[in-house]
Design a protein that fits this description.
8-stranded mixed sheet, 5 helices, alpha+beta, two-stranded antiparallel ribbon
Length: about 190
């Protein structure tokens, strides 16, 4: 019974995400028109960093998000649960995370099993470089309380559909490509 409720919740969440991603794709297509300020801030200014980080997610997410510098300093205090910050292998990936995704990453970086209570989302609309050096196009990560619920999805990015990264581990999460680039565009690091 519990498994059916979880699977139904995951299915409903996936549909909601797919519907919402249409807005993300539209926002990405219009990003050049909308994001061009009259006067461009200096690249290393707080204003430029805030603009870069807020471009990692859709406006519905970033509108009330807290924005953190690389050092963890609050550059813009938000009123919601979302936090936009740099992440990734190089620490240069603009990312917007909800509270569940932050709990997931905290546990992951501490080598602990994540204690996620509900579905969590992480927006990476600029793509990223993984810890194995793989280049990934824009995507949304979906964190789930029970990673075994993701076994129905493929585990390779080349399928072009949502796929599971870190499959068969406590850190398994769903990757949903956005912005018109399929995960087939992923480039593997040389030697792999």
């Amino acid at each position: 019974m519990k498994r059916n409720v979880v699977n139904q919740s995951l299915s409903v969440a996936a549909v909601a995400i797919f519907l919402g991603l249409g807005l993300v794709a539209s926002a990405l297509a219009n990003q050049n028109e909308v994001d061009q300020p009259k006067k461009k801030p200096q690249a290393d200014s707080d204003e430029a960093i805030i603009q870069t980080l807020l471009s990692a997610g859709p406006e519905s997410v970033t509108k009330h998000a807290t924005v953190l510098s690389r050092a963890g300093k609050v550059l813009q205090q938000g009123s919601g649960e979302w936090v936009c910050r740099f992440a990734g292998l190089t620490g240069d990936t603009p990312t917007c995370l909800d509270s569940q995704s932050r709990a997931y990453f905290k546990a992951r970086f501490q080598g602990k099993t994540p204690q996620v209570e509900r579905i969590g989302l992480t927006y990476m609309l600029h793509g990223m470089t993984t810890d194995t050096g793989m280049q990934m196009p824009p995507h949304v990560m979906v964190i789930v309380p029970d990673p075994t619920d993701l076994k129905q999805f493929p585990t390779t990015p080349q399928s072009g559909a949502p796929w599971v990264m870190k499959a068969n581990t406590p850190y398994a999460h769903l990757i949903i490509p956005v912005g018109g680039q399929s995960m087939g565009a992923i480039t593997q690091p040389s030697g792999q």
